[in-house]
Amino acid sequence: MALYPQLILDALSHVRYPGTGKDIVSSEMIEDNIRIDGNNVSFSIIFEKENDPFAKSLLKAAETSIKHYIADEGEINVAITPKFRVAAPKKDPDNPLPGVKNIIAISSGKGGVGKSTVSANLAVALAQAGYKVGLLDADIFGPSVPKMFGLEDARPILEDKNAEGRELIRPEEKYGVKMLSIGFFVNPKDAVLWRGGMASNALKQLITDANWGELDYFLLDLPPGTSDIHLTLVQTLALTGAIVVSTPQEVALADARKGIAMFTGEKVNVPIIGLVENMAWFTPAELPQNKYYLFGKEGCKRLAEEMNVPLLGQIPIVQSICECGDSGAPIALDTESMTGLAFASLAEKMVASVEEIKAKGIKTSRVITHK
């Protein structure tokens, strides 16, 4: 008895797809292209998606069934080709966050200048202006975002949102800002004692293993100084640009210069969106018109002119900034306050600077290091 297509289909009708429990013939998984050449049989099995977990075992089961139920025909050579209704989207290794339009690094040359406060309030101000915003607390060893947003007890969950069927971390969301921080995954009372490699790997996971979705602006609150973390981010993401935060004090400005030099160096080549002068002056609540320059006057303004970069804003020292940060409600939420207006203006100027950079066609290049 010679082989013919219906004989093959009869054998395949005994094979069930584990996902539904139905046989692969009635499920119309056999493409209408069964080819027979003597004792050589070839055809295709159609799967819904490219990463089907049962594909490999189903191909083997189909081959076994044909050889078992048509044993009288002697040795049969079976060649089965998997086909897919929906192919998995190809990854772009140069763009792990295809839904994100702009990635902004917020940096400082030294600690204690209020970089995280600026990051949190800028994120809120952008969200209030109608933008889709994400905030990554990349300061692995000193995470501040959980406290500043009142999310110290938050524990992000995994959800199946990846096109490849892989589970992703769902960022926490508050005040219109999606956010992740290593602080969500460690005991807030414990110190994070990790070597540079561990910290960098953890940061990569928060970026590439999270469901950030569509964002207009993705802000990265970097640790102070220059470190492995900074290099990891430049290698992992194509940054739109960087914002450098400093106080007007000369010792802080000296470190801010180093931060600018790192980003604008030939190997990193990240545009500077602008400088933010934090703690620019002190204004007591009872004397709102008075300004006391505790850390020097207009130091960042002079540095911006020296480095030929925009000065995006000057944020005063106001007691409510600290109180709101500690209470988990960033001051930028108060759009009627002097400080709230300052952060709204900062957001507006940052957007304008980003658009100018993109209009000029300035692109970043990644750091290349030897492994």
Low-pLDDT stretches: 367-371
N-end to C-end Cα span = 62 Å
Element pattern in H and E: HEEHEEHEHEEEEHEHEHEHEHH
- Beta-strand share of residues: 15-25%
Helix content: 25-40%
The strand order across the widest sheet is 8-9-5-10-4-11-12-13
Assembly state = single chain
| Radius of gyration over C-alpha positions, nearest whole angstrom | 29 Å
Characterise this structure.
The protein is α/β, with parallel strands linked by helices and 371 residues long. Helix content is 32%, strand content 22%. The protein contains 10 helices and 13 strands. It starts with a helix and ends in a 12-residue tail after the last helix.
Brief descriptors of the model:
single chain; 371 residues; alpha/beta; eight-stranded mixed β-sheet; three-stranded mixed β-sheet; elongated
Nutshell version of this structure?
Residues 367-371 have low confidence and may be disordered.
Please give the structural blueprint.
Elements: H1 5-12, E1 35-37, E2 40-49, H2 55-69, E3 77-86, E4 100-108, H3 115-128, E5 133-137, H4 145-148, E6 158-160, E7 167-169, E8 172-174, E9 177-181, H5 196-208, E10 215-221, H6 228-236, E11 241-246, H7 250-264, E12 272-282, H8 299-307, E13 311-317, H9 319-327, H10 338-359
Parallel strand pairs: 2-3, 4-10, 4-11, 5-9, 5-10, 11-12, 12-13
Antiparallel strand pairs: 1-2, 6-7, 8-9
Helix pairs in contact: 3-10, 5-6
